[in-house]
Task: inverse folding
């Protein structure tokens, strides 16, 4: 309520002040009698009064001052006659109307000018407060790498006032030579290419990340200055290093676990071999032995994939490259997946070009890629379903798609399905493994210079995994025979 009363009082005072300006204009015109005729020049002193009222107090007070000025000029300073409109000769009437219109127009223009300047001042104040209170350091550089503007955060960072920076380069400020070289190279790149550049650097025991953005001259593509935003990322950097250390520790642990599991698995496999050679085993022994064989193969594959993944992440995988026919690789992968597909009665249909599709790669690793994709497709297919494999040999690249019609992939999982140990809810519910098969596929395809992508219309709509590899021109008969035992 007090605020409303204050606003009303301020509004009333503006009108009172406008009336006071009009009174000054009227008194000023009277004071000029003797210097000027008593009648004539009726609006001479009223124009400044109206303009001041409109500019300082607003449109309403300005119009009030203009109205009072017109009345005063008509009554006191314009000669009257017995004839004509309002007792004014035609010329005097036209002059009154003209100058009255000028006063109104002046009020409008000055009011808009005052409001625009007030808005600009408010925005400048807001921007100044924002830059001064922001924890980020905002800087602007010219083509000589001099500071055109620096926010107040620089004083909190360096202990030096903003005035020390404006108009000077980092070198002139005595910054370390290596840091100056890094900044000047980044600034030169932005000025030259007109694209943002990011850099990370250390200063005074802290780590900072900066983004440099080009500012273009109006109407041209020339970079006139560069705006820099620098942020203290010391804590973020510390956490990133801790995460990397934990990630390396995890890889070491997984590699150790996988290595330690190989010896027991070898013993289990030998035991299963012995049981399979028993003479005339009972049905129960046969069923149990078959289940043990399947589980041993599954465990061996999981351990092998886990070891391969840790080797790849440690850059310890070497590819035995040669000219490889992708058609033969896919046929071998189908054979390797046959036991699982037979158990689920899933039919694998191939659509391969008649001609060879050569790539420069490791036959065993490529078989591993497509075996993992086929195994994944069969697992997520319904019993009695179909998995399609379609290949296309294109100029410069070859594409192979493995398509199932099973559980599908949720849309939000498509970007993460190739990450290690990531499984969709559908995969977790089916208990299909550790979630490393697709991660291994991605890494092996990447080592071959290709890419793999997943596509699905959603749950229950199946999934398509497409592998794209660089093609090798056909030359001679130098082909590697791709066989399932190439994995060993």
Result:
């Amino acid at each position: 309520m007090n605020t409303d009363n204050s606003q009303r009082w301020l509004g009333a005072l503006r009108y009172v002040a406008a009336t006071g300006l009009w009174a000054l204009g009227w008194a000023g015109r009277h004071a000029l009698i003797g210097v000027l005729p008593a009648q004539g020049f009726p609006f001479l002193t009223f124009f400044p009064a109206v303009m001041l009222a409109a500019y300082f107090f607003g449109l309403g007070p300005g119009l009030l001052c203009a109205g009072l000025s017109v009345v005063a000029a008509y009554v006191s300073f314009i000669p009257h006659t017995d004839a004509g409109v309002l007792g004014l000769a035609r010329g005097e009437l036209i002059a009154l109307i003209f100058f009255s219109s000028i006063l109104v127009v002046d009020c409008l223009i000055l009011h808009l000018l005052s409001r625009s300047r007030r808005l600009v001042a408010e925005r400048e104040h807001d921007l100044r407060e924002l830059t001064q209170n922001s924890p980020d350091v905002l800087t602007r550089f010219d083509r000589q790498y001099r500071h055109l503007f620096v926010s107040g955060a620089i004083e909190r960072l360096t202990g030096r006032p903003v005035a020390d920076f404006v108009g000077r380069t980092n070198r002139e400020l005595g910054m370390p030579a290596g840091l100056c070289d890094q900044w000047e190279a980044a600034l030169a790149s932005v000025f030259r290419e007109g694209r943002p550049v990011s850099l990370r650097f250390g200063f005074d025991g802290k780590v900072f990340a900066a983004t440099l953005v080009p500012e273009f001259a109006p109407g041209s593509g020339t970079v006139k200055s560069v705006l820099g935003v620098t942020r203290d990322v010391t804590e973020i950097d510390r956490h990133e290093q801790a995460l990397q250390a934990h990630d390396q520790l995890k890889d070491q642990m997984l590699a150790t676990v996988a290595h330690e599991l190989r010896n027991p698995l070898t013993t289990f496999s030998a035991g299963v071999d012995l049981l399979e050679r028993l003479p005339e085993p009972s049905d129960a022994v046969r069923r149990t032995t078959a289940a043990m064989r399947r589980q041993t193969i599954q465990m061996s594959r999981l351990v092998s994939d886990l070891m391969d993944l840790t080797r790849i992440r440690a850059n310890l995988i070497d590819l035995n490259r040669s000219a490889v026919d992708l058609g033969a690789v896919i046929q071998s992968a189908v054979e390797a997946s046959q036991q699982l597909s037979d158990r689920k009665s899933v039919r694998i249909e191939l659509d391969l070009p008649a001609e060879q599709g050569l790539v420069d790669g490791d036959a065993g690793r490529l078989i591993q890629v497509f075996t993992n994709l086929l195994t994944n497709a069969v697992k997520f297919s319904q019993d009695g379903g179909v998995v399609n494999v379609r290949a296309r040999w294109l100029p410069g690249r070859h594409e192979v798609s493995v398509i199932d019609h099973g559980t599908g992939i949720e849309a939000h999982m498509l970007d993460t399905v190739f990450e290690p140990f990531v499984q969709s809810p559908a995969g977790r519910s089916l208990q299909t493994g550790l979630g490393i098969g697709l991660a291994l596929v991605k890494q092996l395809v990447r080592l071959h210079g290709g890419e793999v992508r997943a596509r699905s219309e959603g749950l229950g709509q199946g999934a398509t995994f497409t592998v794209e590899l660089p093609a090798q021109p056909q030359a001679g008969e130098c082909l590697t025979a791709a066989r399932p035992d190439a994995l060993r």
Remarks:
- The longest helix spans residues 90-133.
- Residues 170 and 176 are 9 Å apart (CA to CA).
